[in-house]
Automatic annotation (TrEMBL), chains A, B:
The keyword Membrane belongs to this UniProt entry's keyword annotation: no
Family: Belongs to the NADP-dependent oxidoreductase L4BD family.
Key words, A-Z: Acetylation, Cytoplasm, Fatty acid metabolism, Hydroxylation, Lipid metabolism, NADP, Oxidoreductase, Phosphoprotein, Prostaglandin metabolism
Main location class: cytoplasm
Gene Ontology CC, one term: cytoplasm
Signal peptide (UniProt feature, chain positions): none
Localization: Cytoplasm
Molecular functions (GO terms): 15-oxoprostaglandin 13-reductase [NAD(P)+] activity; 2-alkenal reductase [NAD(P)H] activity
Xref: PANTHER family: PROSTAGLANDIN REDUCTASE, PROSTAGLANDIN REDUCTASE 1
EC number: 1.3.1.48, 1.3.1.74
Top EC class of this enzyme: oxidoreductase
Protein name according to UniProt: Prostaglandin reductase 1
Entry keyword annotation includes NADP: yes
Length: 327, 327
């Protein structure tokens, strides 16, 4: 008999998630039936979308999320023992699956870490790839601003914009992140949104205005970027992390004033929109990594017991690159 | 010697425009030279964009705006005496022009009032036509919400959406406006944003959600509409009148939270974008009027001396349909 451990969603988040909102419980799994397999988590993902999606999640269910897992028992020939998968199994150590839904292949065996399937070679990498290229359609020579620039998505967005020949300005909240963005990822400039001269620095950094804005944060940071945007600027809205933990109570200046006068196009997206092109994005990012044009970093937390801590640290901006938990 | 009267922009608006921000002065016009003509204002337009644009307008210049004028003296064969033109001459009674810039033909002589060239058969009509059809791309059976619904633009937007087979909900601020929208313009429903149950009424009025939103106002009204929008909803942002008189100080909930989760597309526009298709919009609106499918109303103020009053009344929502001043 296999015992799984899992986090059950017990209480709707109010502001920043509290440890007592989730309960870590043990569950005895039934025997594996024909067509099923048992997978054991190796790496688990913590992402901003989990906080955003929580209000629509039922209490009593396992908290949502993807993981890289290894098949350890199988009665399904498509998933033999030893195979690795990316599964939308939630926050749990062991999962019985029939292999039908929410399973993606691990596409990065060639010398790259398995955990990248949760980052640059997985959902966040595709979020950056499609969200920037399809919605902003950046052209060489244009100025691209990315907020949440040192996160799993933002750090890839900026690098893709550089590959496309753009001038790239990254916005994040610590100078350590900024150093990484400029020195290792070749961003043209970093601006710390916590600086009291943030708006002035942003103006100086964008002498030709801003053509594309990849927005992970929302709020006044985004208004300051819109203030700098050129006519017909494009905004890809990937997230609004500055509002996730405030219950919608954060009040900001109205964006419509910028949207009209500058004729901006702002579009939100969920990466599932491009499910039919999923492997295109992952293969392209992998190619750029192999060519040395794209770098990545992971903030790795050890231990399934530390899932909650890793989650909240990430929400508070404690991660550089992709936040991952090693089970 | 002809004496023109004109309104000079003397003081930048702070909140709602004050009468002392503009000065009504007399100006002696020089003789008409070869290639020029003298036009006398018949109808003058007051529009929300004038308030929005004012911060970028230099003090000491004539306040901006269009008028229907009649050529009363001419040394330009293209503009013979007696011809009517729509000119971007600003708030003035007499204008000498060389006919090169900012002049549109009057396209509605066939039994329709000349003043419509400032409304449904002019810039506001084209704003409605292109702003709705090009940006929202409404499909038959979809639900379309229009704010500022009883204004020069909103009232046309709603009627075009009805012609295209949509369910149309108009938002405005008086029940008299609502009566006109529903009883005469065939809107499916009117909601008064001043009602304390506004959000509840909006929810009841949109059982299938909202697919398209034509936004003239911005602010919390627009957030309430976004709350009701369906996945992949489209928002055409024409104006943000709720923010024009507040110096950007109105604070509202952040739109990015809706934009991401519902994958909304929000686009602002200025109607000049479609200058190359200008006559298409006007001819189509005229056709719909002739066919009895489109109605219009004007709120007419008598006298050039009352320009300022008409302007502020319009900004406060005092008009039904197009606000026009008869010189």
């Amino acid at each position: 008999m296999v015992k799984a451990r899992k986090y059950v969603f017990r209480k709707q988040f109010d502001g920043f998630p509290k440890e007592s909102d989730l309960e870590l419980v043990e569950e005895e799994l039934p025997p594996v039936k024909d067509g099923e397999f048992l997978a054991e988590a190796i790496y688990l993902s913590v992402d901003p979308y989990m906080r955003a999606y929580a209000p629509r999640l039922s209490l009593g269910t396992t908290f949502i999320g993807s993981q890289v897992a290894k098949v350890v028992e199988s009665k399904n020939p498509k998933y033999p023992v030893g195979k690795h998968v990316v599964g939308e199994f939630g926050w749990r150590t062991h999962t019985i699956s029939d292999g039908k839904d929410g399973i993606f292949p691990v596409l990065n065996p060639e010398g790259l870490p398995l955990s990248l399937s949760l980052g640059v070679l997985g959902m966040p990498g595709n979020t950056a790839y499609f969200g920037l290229l399809e919605i902003c359609q950046p052209k060489a020579g244009e100025t691209v601003v990315v907020s949440g620039a040192a996160g799993a998505v933002g750090s890839i967005v900026g690098q893709i914009a550089k590959i496309k020949g753009c001038t790239v300005i990254g916005i994040a909240g610590t100078d350590e992140k900024g150093k990484w963005l400029v020195e290792e990822l070749q961003f043209d400039r970093f601006i710390n949104y916590k600086d009291k001269d943030f708006e002035k620095e942003l103006k100086e950094a964008t002498p030709k205005g801003v053509d594309c804005y990849f927005d992970n944060v929302g709020g006044e940071i985004s208004n300051a970027v819109m203030e700098r945007m050129n006519q017909y600027g494009r905004i890809s809205v990937c997230g609004a992390i500055s509002g996730y933990n405030s219950g919608g109570d954060v009040k900001v200046g109205m964006v419509q004033l910028f949207v009209v006068s500058k004729q901006l196009k702002m579009e939100g997206f969920v990466v599932r929109r491009w499910t039919d092109r999923w492997f295109e994005g992952i293969e392209q990012n992998k190619k750029w990594i192999k060519e040395g044009k794209m770098r990545y970093r992971e903030t790795m937390t050890e231990g399934f017991d530390n899932m909650f801590k890793a989650f909240v640290d990430m929400l508070k901006g404690g991660n550089v690159g992709k936040a991952v938990v090693k089970a």
